[in-house]
Amino acid sequence: MAMRPLVVLALAVALAGVALGGGAAEGAGECGRSSPDRMALRMAPCISAADEPDSAPSSSCCSAVHTIGKSPSCLCAVMLSGTAKMAGIKPEVAITIPKRCNMADRPVGYKCGDYTLP
To answer: For residue 112, is pLDDT > 90?
Structure first.
């Protein structure tokens, strides 16, 4: 559990970077007008689920994944974002969260970089 303060610190640093202009250019991207890095902050409840493949995601994590997962390209961009990387998120584990949340409408087979949604 000593990693949790470091993850929170990494998310705070990332948020500061986004707030200071490190976000996406104006216009719509994978996540609409929000950058994937900013959207990644909404995934904070998923920290432990994205680190441990056998852990059950919390209801708040599943809620965030369901909301962001309405756009598979946004969900993918969030999981591969700089914020997720700085927080130590393992993409190969994070990609399994929609399935572990029993998300019925998840995009099974969707290619996300080197990963495929199960």
So the answer is: yes
DSSP string, 40-94: HGGGGGGHHHHH-TTSPPPHHHHHHHHHHTTSHHHHHHHHTSHHHHHTT--HHHH
Closest CA to 57 of 93, 104, 6: 93
Q: What is the pLDDT of residues 53-108, one digit of tens each?
A: 999 999 999 999 999 999 999 999 999 999 999 988 899 999 999 999 999 888 89
Give the chain's length. Answer: 118
Return the DSSP state at 19.
Answer: I
| Alpha-carbon distances of 67 from 4, 10, 31, rounded to whole Å | 24, 23, 11
The architecture in CATH of the region 31-117 reads: Orthogonal Bundle (1.10)
Please give the model's pTM, rounded to 2 decimal places: 0.73
